[in-house]
Amino acid sequence: MRQSSFAHMATSAMQLLAMLVLGIAAIAASAATLAAIFGYLPWLQLTASFGETAVPWAGMALQVFVTVLLVTLAFYIPSSARVVALEKSHRDFRINMEDVARAFHMAHAADRAGVFTMSSEFDAVRERLAFLRDHPDLGHLEHDVMEVAAQMGEKARELADIYSDEKVARAKKFLAARQEDAERQQERIVEALHICRELRRWADQVELEESVAASQMAQLEEQLRSILPELGFDASDLHRDAAHPDSAGEDPAPKVVNMKPAAE
Length: 264
Known about the structure:
Elements: H1 2-37, E1 49-50, E2 53-54, H2 58-74, H3 77-112, H4 121-134, H5 143-155, H6 157-162, H7 165-231, H8 236-243
Antiparallel strand pairs: 1-2
Helix pairs in contact: 1-2, 1-3, 3-5, 4-5
Transmembrane segments: 54-77
Protein name: DNA repair protein
Region (Disordered): 236-264
């Protein structure tokens, strides 16, 4: 920021110096040419030739040409001065607006913190103006800049009350609590999904074991049905047991397999 300001000041100084030198040169050349026309000063002497032809009035022509050129350039001095003044005013306006924005930011921050208590418009502006005057970082600002910032701060008083530091902190605390609740709920959901997957896997495993046990029992019965008749035993009890299972809650009677040899 300081380097840019120094470069701008150096450029402005060089522009002013160039316009001053150009104006002095144009006045001096015009005075010398007019004096030479009226015979008070001699014309510029210059030895020149065009081929073998000598040009005795070359010095006079060069002096008149330089004079006309300098006078023509001098007519641009007012417009250049206006441009320089416009740049300076624009820069001053930008600096002033930056100062106003900074002062307003500090006043608004103090307003959000609850520093100001006056309710009427006049007292509120005066209170903010006194605060800006006493602020250590704003002592170099002009009175008009502070007054504009104080008026802007008073207009933004309702906004500062809505978004006060206390309300913002309370809102942040509330949102933080909600976020913690959401995270805990998410953890519970993840845990419940894990338990559900474990139960599903366990149930599938139990069903598989029951299916295997039923299949083995069916194979065993089939083997018994095929083996007992070959050994000469009656396996009809197995069919009756399978067709009439024992009722629940009663002690089952001992099953007796008819071991009588089959009739030959």
